[in-house]
Design brief:
With about 80 residues, the protein is mainly α. It is built from three helices and no strands. It has one domain. InterPro entries: NepR.
Length: about 80
């Protein structure tokens, strides 16, 4: 997939009108097809098991979300503003 993107970039640099900065309809179409193929591949992969389990836990009656503070958050400022 990475090679396809490199090919599209090199083709786009050769096929565009100098000074206009736009892509030809052919290049736009090829990019669109590649994006659709990548999207379809991601959709076919499905939801990872760990995410499915987390969603089940959050959907359970009485579930309370628990967010761990890793020190980078400003959620607890000890009363300081």
């Amino acid at each position: 997939m990475e090679q396809v993107m490199k090919d599209l970039k090199s083709q786009a640099s050769r096929s565009t009108t100098p000074g206009k900065g736009g892509l030809t309809p052919e290049i736009q179409s090829r990019i669109g097809h590649q994006l659709r193929a990548m999207y379809d591949d991601v959709v076919r992969q499905g939801v990872p098991d760990r995410f499915a389990e987390l969603i089940k836990k959050l959907d359970a009656p009485g579930a309370t979300p628990h967010v761990e503070n890793e020190g980078g958050s400003n959620d607890n400022n000890n009363g300081r503003d």
